[in-house]
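Query structure, 571 tokens:
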């Protein structure tokens, strides 16, 4: 099939490039080139999903001494990326069908039954093959510079109710840790995306919960007055979040001032109280950053100044940054915490280890540079990695090097962010020589261990000469969401997902009395929830019946395969 008519040509080309340059991430391959070579979002998503399933596809093709690989003549294909994409589409995509035509498709479809049989066997042995993030709630951050939490929640609740119909729980919740973050059910992603009017208007930002922690810690710790540097800004979600939090903080301060003080102010209603210098060295990503800031930031008290350049080349003594008191550093990392990322690696070969160490070296240099600004009092360092080398080791090395031989009497130390005092998962004691008290200051998230958000790491540093009084850092802003009529999220959607995934298929068609009693005792049961549950009962029953049918068919296929294998041995 020619490249002009193949619906998978662009995806196959991108995957071929990725396979030839495994030392680079898919995102950098796809988007750093810019121009007309940037793939469509659908092609990128298809390749990302195909990469996630490469271990499964290779196992299927190579089973029984490469039986299926030889059958479809896989090794002869010049465009192996296209073949991988087609196999993914047939076996693991939503519709499990290959669009278009062509020689590769004909060869794959010719052996469809054998491929599906091997795929069934593989998935039975690897039940975690699916995307864990598909069970995460859909997090929505309200941009308080364009809307209020209450107004956004009302609109989202109306849209969710329309879209849910028969989908059970359809409640918009307030997040328990991040102010202005709303929590919707996982299936909200099907209708709430970047083409949504609320998103295009800049009133809400689709941002994962853990990635909100960096700006939250930076803006909530210590005195928020002064300027800030976001060292690695693009695409700008964390930058705009920091600006929004500062905007809300200054607005709250104005409301708390006595009326007499307010009357004395003349001509200061539009005075900028803080500037966020947003650094980005990539030209393509800098253009994205500027566009995003124009769309999202609108404040009379906070300004964001996009800065095209390398943060590491900024002179700490430059007068332009003399008023900077805090730096937010979220540098390039392995992305190993993003559970649905195509580049995520659960095992480390020599190339991967070298890549991680190279990233850790860069991260350490960037953190030390942040600590070298003489007037900076606070630094937040974060990654979306779960590797110790990029997290605790970087923290330990930076502290050791920056605190040795100090002549001014100052010292950098780890401080536990009070705004996340109730977050349970902490850093790893002993890694890099960190003590338990130091490790307890660190924040970790693990999306594969029940945190309902992607893997993330946050550390917060203060100079000792700065007052350690963090009494102003409270989570009261979060409880305000509940006070304006938004219920607080406490794992309700996680419980729904768990209740809809039976441990054993045989029990799917037999709802037990124990299960009924558990449902009746649920602390989240309300009249509105019961009504929604009644509406969805029929749909869940059909879904469970379908699952049972699929399981029976799969069992029959496995029995036939075993019988054939036994027969061949006898012969």
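Result returned for the query:
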């Amino acid at each position: 099939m020619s490249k002009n008519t193949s619906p998978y040509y662009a995806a196959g080309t991108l995957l071929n490039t990725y396979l030839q340059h495994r030392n680079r991430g898919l995102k950098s391959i796809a988007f750093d080139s810019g121009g007309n070579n940037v793939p469509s979002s659908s092609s990128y998503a298809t390749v990302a999903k195909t990469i996630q399933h490469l271990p499964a596809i290779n196992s299927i093709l190579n089973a029984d001494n490469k039986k299926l690989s030889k059958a479809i003549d896989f090794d002869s294909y010049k465009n192996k990326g296209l073949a991988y994409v087609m196999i993914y589409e047939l076996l693991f995509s939503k519709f499990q069908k290959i669009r278009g035509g062509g020689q590769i498709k004909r060869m794959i479809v010719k052996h469809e039954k054998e491929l599906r049989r091997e795929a069934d066997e593989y998935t039975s042995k690897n039940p975690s093959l699916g995307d864990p993030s598909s069970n995460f709630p859909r997090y929505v951050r309200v941009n308080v510079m364009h809307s209020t939490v209450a107004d956004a929640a009302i609109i989202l609740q109306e849209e969710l109710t329309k879209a849910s119909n028969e989908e059970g729980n359809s409640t918009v919740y307030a997040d328990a840790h991040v102010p202005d973050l709303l929590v919707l059910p996982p299936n909200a992603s099907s209708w709430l995306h970047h083409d949504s009017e609320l998103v295009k208007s800049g009133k809400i930002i689709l941002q994962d919960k853990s990635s909100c922690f960096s700006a939250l810690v930076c803006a909530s710790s210590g005195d928020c007055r002064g300027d800030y540097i976001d060292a690695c800004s693009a695409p700008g979600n964390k930058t705009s979040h920091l600006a929004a939090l500062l905007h809300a903080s200054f607005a709250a301060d104005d409301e708390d001032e006595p009326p007499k003080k307010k009357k004395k102010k003349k001509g200061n209603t539009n005075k900028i109280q803080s500037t966020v210098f947003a650094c980005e060295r990539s030209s393509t990503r800098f253009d994205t950053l500027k566009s995003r800031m124009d769309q999202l930031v609108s404040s009379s008290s906070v300004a964001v100044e996009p800065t095209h350049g390398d943060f590491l080349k900024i002179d700490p003594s430059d007068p332009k940054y003399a008023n900077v008191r805090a730096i937010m550093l979220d540098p390039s990392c392995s992305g190993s915490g993003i559970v649905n990322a195509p580049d995520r690696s659960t095992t480390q070969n020599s190339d991967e280890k070298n890549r991680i160490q190279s990233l850790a070296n860069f991260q350490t240099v960037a953190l030390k540079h942040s600590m070298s600004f003489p007037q900076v009092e606070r630094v937040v360092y974060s990654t979306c990695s779960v590797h110790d080398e990029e997290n605790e080791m970087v923290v330990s090395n930076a502290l050791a090097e920056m605190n040795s031989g100090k002549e001014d009497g100052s010292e950098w130390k780890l401080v536990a962010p009070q705004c996340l005092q109730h977050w349970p998962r902490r850093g790893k004691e002993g890694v890099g020589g960190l003590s338990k008290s130091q490790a307890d200051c660190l924040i970790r998230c693990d999306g594969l261990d029940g945190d309902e958000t992607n893997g993330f790491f946050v550390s917060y540093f203060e100079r000792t000469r700065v007052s350690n009084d963090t009494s102003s850092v409270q989570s009261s802003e979060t409880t305000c969401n509940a006070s304006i009529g938004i219920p607080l999220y406490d794992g309700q959607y996680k419980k729904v997902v768990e209740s809809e995934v039976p441990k054993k298929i045989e029990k799917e068609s037999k709802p037990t009395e124990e299960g009924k009693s558990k449902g009746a005792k649920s602390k989240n049961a309300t009249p509105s929830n019961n009504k929604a549950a009644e509406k969805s009962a029929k749909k869940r029953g059909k879904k469970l019946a379908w699952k049972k049918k699929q399981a029976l068919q799969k069992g029959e296929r496995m029995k036939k395969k075993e019988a054939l294998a036994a027969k061949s041995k006898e012969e």
